[in-house]
TrEMBL record:
Pfam families: CbiA. It comes from the Bacteria. GO terms for molecular function: ATP binding; ATP hydrolysis activity. Residues 7-219 form the CobQ/CobB/MinD/ParA nucleotide binding domain. One of its GO terms (biological process) is negative regulation of cell division. This is CO dehydrogenase maturation factor. InterPro entries: CobQ/CobB/MinD/ParA_Nub-bd_dom (IPR002586), P-loop_NTPase (IPR027417), ParA/MinD_ATPase (IPR050625). One of its GO terms (cellular component) is cytosol. It comes from Streptomyces capillispiralis.
Length: 326
């Protein structure tokens, strides 16, 4: 299951994605956690100290390796240099699985021990001022997009992405790569305006979007979110002393998280699992092709000097293979 946490800056994306990752690990589920947020804090939220977080390999720095590996023997992709972030897999491409070992994980993932088990953590790497210009920012999150587009994940396997909600993810198509998107919103006008914008983009692409209220203090806060988000509001989370202790560098055992927080996390978990039967592999593949052709036309063909439409394998559908060891 591919799951994104998006929202306004400071809304609690990193906090809630890290809690969700801890919850999944405590359930014994295999998890790949991905930090694709402009502010790279997921490692710290998963308990890494500054030194450990700084030592994480950046996916953005391993793009050539990622492309070379994923390209495999796909004859439509003549070189890694002509592979852009939206280049879809086809016959001969190498696909990735949540639970296997592969050169992409070797280069980009690190194991993080949590209560209940270890998860894999991958990070795009810190964004510099220059990255925030559209093209380069794309190249960092592009590694994540390639990862998602080549991933065959089954039920009970999770990829959780902490992500910036912004025009970048809309242009690249990244926002369509998830089984479910949790939009974290504080009960403020700014918080819900990001929701509205996302909903608007999501409408044409069958994106499953659910609002998770955060820092909700009272009934008035809850009523506000309900009035703005209606049935899209899945659950609301209040202030958490557990989170506050963690921020102080004194993380309590995960089992000590407040009951309301644990309840919210299990709702997120079942909402994510419930999307599985609505998966449409043809549509998923069609959308990656749609965004690839769009990016090819707008900058990719010119940048690579190749006709990137020729990379599309018309007969290919990204499919999942559930391993028997589940
Ligand atoms: N439910 C909560 N209880 C207590 N503190 C919280 C809660 N949610 C978020 N916070 C705190 O609010 C701050 C912002 O949260 P967080 O870093 O998760 O937001 P973000 O959306 O990832 O922000 P950014 O856009 O900077 O990446 C953090 O200090 C976090 O600890
Ligand atoms: Mg964050």
């Amino acid at each position: 299951m591919k799951i994104a946490f998006v929202g306004k800056g400071g809304s609690g994306k990193t906090t809630l994605s890290s809690l969700f990752v801890r919850h999944l690990a405590a359930c014994g589920a295999p998890v790949v956690a991905v930090d694709a947020d402009i502010n790279q804090h997921l490692g710290a939220a998963l308990g890494l100290n500054e030194e450990e977080a700084a030592a994480l390999p950046a996916m953005g720095a391993h793009l050539p390796l990622i492309k070379e590996y994923l390209r495999g023997t796909n004859p439509r992709i003549t070189s890694a240099d002509t592979m852009i972030k939206t280049t879809p897999p086809g016959e001969g491409s190498r696909l990735l699985r949540v639970r296997e070992d592969n050169p992409v994980y070797d280069a980009c993932a690190r194991s993080v021990e949590l209560d209940g088990g270890a998860v894999r953590l991958m990070v795009t790497g810190p964004f510099t001022d220059a990255d925030l210009g559209v093209a380069c920012y794309h190249s960092k999150t592009g590694a994540v997009e390639l990862f998602l587009n080549h991933l065959v994940d089954g039920p009970g396997e999770y990829v959780v992405v902490d992500m910036t909600a912004g025009s970048d993810s809309f242009a690249s198509g990244m926002f369509t790569r998830f089984d479910i998107t949790f939009l974290v919103a504080e009960p403020t006008r700014k918080g819900v305006s990001v929701y509205r914008q996302y909903k608007e983009y999501a409408r044409d692409f069958d994106v499953t979007l659910k609002v998770v209220g955060n820092k909700v203090r009272d009934q008035d806060d809850l009523d506000f979110l309900r009035a703005e988000a209606g049935d899209d509001l899945l659950v609301a989370v209040g202030h958490s002393d557990w989170v506050r202790s963690m921020e102080k560098g004194r993380p309590p055992r995960f089992g000590l998280l407040e009951e309301s927080g644990r309840h919210a996390l299990s709702l997120l978990h079942s909402a994510a699992d419930a999307t599985y039967e609505r998966r449409d592999r043809e549509r998923y593949t069609r959308q990656m092709v749609h965004f690839h052709l769009k990016n090819a036309r707008s900058w990719g063909n010119e940048r690579t000097g190749a006709d990137l439409a020729a990379q599309v394998d018309p007969g290919f559908v990204l499919g999942e293979r559930v391993t028997a060891s589940a």
